[in-house]
Amino acid sequence: MASTDVTLEELQAEIRNVPDFPEKGIQFKDITPVLADARLLDGCISHLLSGHSADTVDVVAGIDARGFIFGAAMARELGVGFVPIRKKGKLPWEIIEESYELEYGSNTIAIHTDAVSAGQRVLLVDDLLATGGTAAAAASVVAKAGGLVVEAVFFIELGFLDGRAKMGAAPVRSLVRY
Ligand code: AMP
């Protein structure tokens, strides 16, 4: 795994806070300035992978949609495969799905039944951990498919929402915390 000279402070400085998006009262953490900068993107991938190698991870699973951006790059870097965990109605084959509650209503995410084989070590990734509903449901479908989440890693964590508490036994790590 390549090391990086990019600091977490540099990454945090390029996260753009957008008030009242997509609705009033939400401060959206816009990561596109990090993605658009080759050095920061490389540094972010390196930090997300910290300590992992193909000796400890069999597959990277990314959460729809920004988890795909990091996840595929991380998988390529490790030399392992990538699995998408998608919002309802997007995966064409047989699926395992899980619903979770939002403030208003619910969401459902899914994984292909054959995406992970029994006992495979899965590194789960998304851009941001907020209430933890999405990531907990993602960890659950991975487990139901037979995988073992070795770590759930996030670029950003909104610590005040305590999403970690929903993650059960899966180790959780984030690069930048608010
Ligand atoms: P949650 O299920 O509440 O942990 O929400 C996590 C998912 O919603 C992630 O896939 C994030 O990309 C997205 N998300 C939630 N809150 C924000 C935010 N403030 N800024 C950007 N993305 C967010």
Verbal overview:
The chain has 178 residues and is α/β, with parallel strands linked by helices. It has one domain: Rossmann fold (3-Layer(aba) Sandwich). 27% of the residues lie in helices and 33% in strands. The protein has five helices and nine strands, in the order αββααβαββββαββ. The protein has helices spanning 8-13, 32-35, 38-49, 66-78, 133-145; strands spanning 16-19, 27-30, 59-63, 81-87, 95-101, 106-112, 121-129, 148-157, 172-177. The strands form two sheets. Strands 5-6-4-3-7-8-9 form a seven-stranded mixed sheet, with helices on both faces. Strands 1-2 form a two-stranded antiparallel sheet. Helix 4 links the parallel strand 3 (59-63) and strand 4. Helix 3 (38-49) crosses helix 4. The longest helix is centred in the middle third of the chain and has 13 residues, at 66-78. The two termini are 27 Å apart. The model has no long low-confidence stretch (mean pLDDT 96). The site of adenosine monophosphate has 17 residues, from strand 2, strand 7 and helix 5.
